[in-house]
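User: Before I run my own analysis I want an independent prediction to cross-check against. Here's the chain; please return only the structure tokens and, at the end, one sentence I can use as a sanity check.
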Amino acid sequence: MKNLRREVLKLLGASLFAPGFALAQGASAPVKIAMIEGLSGGNANGGEAVFRNLVWAVERVNQRGAVKTAQGPRLLQLDRYDSKGQIEEALSALRSAIDDGAQFIVQGNSSAVAAALIEAINKHNEREPQRRVLFLNYSAVDPTLTNEKCSFWHFRFDAHADMRMAALMSVLKEDKALKSVYLLGQDYSFGQSVLREARRQLGAQRPDIRIVGDELHPLLRIKDFAPYAAKIKATGAQAVITGNFSNDLTLLVKAAKQAGFEGSFYTFYGNALGAPAAIGDAGVGKVIAVADWLPNVQSAQSEAFYRSFRRRYPRPADDYVHMRMQLMIEALAQAIEQAGSSDAVAVAKRLEHVVVRLQGQGGAMRAADHQFQQPLVVGVMERQGAPGVKFDVEGSGYGFRVVKTIAAAQAEMPASCRMDRPG
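Assistant: Structure tokens:
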């Protein structure tokens, strides 16, 4: 389509000398995976970070001989489509991807886009059963996506916002000196759900903490957060709870630093994409982030995993590895092989029960709502070289020390999903 900037990556070159490639050369048509993501606009750096992770994951599968099916081995092919972070562009990209033969759609950097894709895929799969596709979600964490809006065709591999908030709260509630917080978020479904759950969990676990500010702002449109930082400081808040990401987080912490705010930030995404470098020494011991995995998880397997990613992407600016994206592609490859084909229904039925592990990390899909269950970790920003901080983030000199590990069973939450399954 004329209005859609489409870039295609065919991941064959990296497989040329891999074990099993001779077999893969005689493979059937590749299994096409379409990444629909904002690769331009306010969160372009987040989109590119996702792309690097998926490239690495797909390369790993292809290098070991592709996926085995009843028709023979099939390479995974990753194609990328720029949604510009907009719903209409994403829906246009979805139509193009399906027309190009994609059977698996991956997206995650916007819950609003994810909700639109789920609805569109539901309708497409009902209308065209011979061209059904599955949607694998790696980052869109609005809880409704696996609750009220759950779909047989959608699988989420990230912990949803309520699960992430509970992990953060397990650390926050232990800070007995904390008496006041400011809630700040992006004004769309995800940001709204973060603040809603923050209010609920604070009321349940720390009713003594006063909420001195509760505010939403336009998504990825604010260029100067100085007025917000001034309000935060004026309230006397001792901490900020935010789900902000990309420039909305980086600019916020920069403004807070310049305003002289000395409190803590409890964040979903404060561990990368420029935030640690932006806040600098002011964040040491004060920026807290929740994730499915962090580079300073203390195990030999975890360290080997991280070092192998850095060998693949040695530039400091490219240093943002997502374990869950690696597990997602491994789960897809496993499900295709178990199904013996890339048929959407057959693969979905295998994905519903998939259990996957990689370098000591792993998780399992919950069939009831298609919400992946995995451990979570909470880290606190420290200078590289401090105890527990072997690795920094993006060459900033700052990394995250793991202070809490939440087992998958502890992170799990009930679901209200009532899923319709194909007959």
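Sanity check: Residues 182 and 212 are 6 Å apart (CA to CA).
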